[in-house]
């Protein structure tokens, strides 16, 4: 098995990483300039909002956000202290906890989205055609699926 990676793929990988860092940096700056919390807060609040009943088990939240369970716990602690989420004990087993979106969390999402969307439009939507976006999406979905499957022996 060769460790060689073709140059077009290395270039695409570097471009993906650099674009991600640059766009996220611009979004973070725009949120901060608007006096809003960081993008990670939006990601957690949105993940809880889109879950059935606007609540999600803490373990599922960690899996869906690619954060460690400890990292999600600390982030949820901050969101709970800010009144944007609350924890609720899982009634079915009594051991787990749900993160539950509060009305204040819903309102924070509404405040953050216009800033996030405007910056995403300026840095991504206005610079990548619909056709390019479809190709990027399809390729990255395949890469995600390959990464999720067990490695070849």
Give the helix/strand layout.
Elements: H1 7-33, H2 39-49, E1 55-57, H3 58-65, H4 69-81, E2 85-89, E3 97-101, H5 103-125, H6 130-148
Antiparallel strand pairs: 1-3, 2-3
Give the tags:
Arc Repressor Mutant, subunit A, globular, 3-stranded antiparallel beta sheet
Helical fraction equals: 55-70%
Class by helix and strand content? mainly alpha
Distance from N terminus to C terminus (CA atoms, Å) equals 11 Å
How many β-strand stretches?
Answer: 3
Helix/strand order: HHEHHEEHH
Count of alpha and pi helical runs: 6
Report the principal-axis shape. globular
Spatial ordering of strands, largest sheet: 1-3-2
CATH architecture of the domain at 37-141: Orthogonal Bundle
CATH fold name of the domain at 37-141, please? Arc Repressor Mutant, subunit A
User: CATH H level of the domain at 37-141: which superfamily?
Assistant: Winged helix-like DNA-binding domain superfamily/Winged helix DNA-binding domain
Characterise this structure.
With 153 residues, the protein is mainly alpha-helical. The protein has a domain of 105 residues: Arc Repressor Mutant, subunit A (Orthogonal Bundle). The protein is 66% helix and 8% strand. It is built from six helices and three strands; from the N terminus they run ααβααββαα. α3 packs across α4. The chain is globular. The chain starts with 6 loop residues before the first helix and ends in a 5-residue tail after the last helix. The model has no long low-confidence stretch (mean pLDDT 92).
């Amino acid at each position: 098995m060769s460790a060689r990676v073709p140059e077009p793929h290395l270039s695409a990988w570097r471009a993906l990483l650099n674009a991600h860092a640059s766009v996220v940096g611009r979004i973070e700056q725009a949120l901060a300039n608007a006096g809003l919390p960081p993008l990670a807060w939006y990601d957690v609040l949105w993940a809880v909002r889109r879950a059935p009943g606007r609540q999600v088990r803490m373990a599922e939240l960690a899996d869906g956000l690619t954060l460690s369970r400890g990292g999600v716990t600390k982030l949820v602690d901050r969101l709970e202290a800010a009144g944007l989420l609350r924890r609720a004990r899982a009634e079915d087993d009594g051991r787990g906890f749900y993160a539950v979106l509060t009305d204040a969390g819903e309102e924070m999402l509404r405040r953050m989205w216009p800033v996030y969307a405007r910056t995403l439009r300026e840095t991504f939507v206005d610079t990548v055609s619909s056709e390019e976006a479809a190709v990027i999406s399809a390729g990255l979905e395949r890469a995600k699926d390959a990464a999720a499957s067990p490695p070849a022996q």
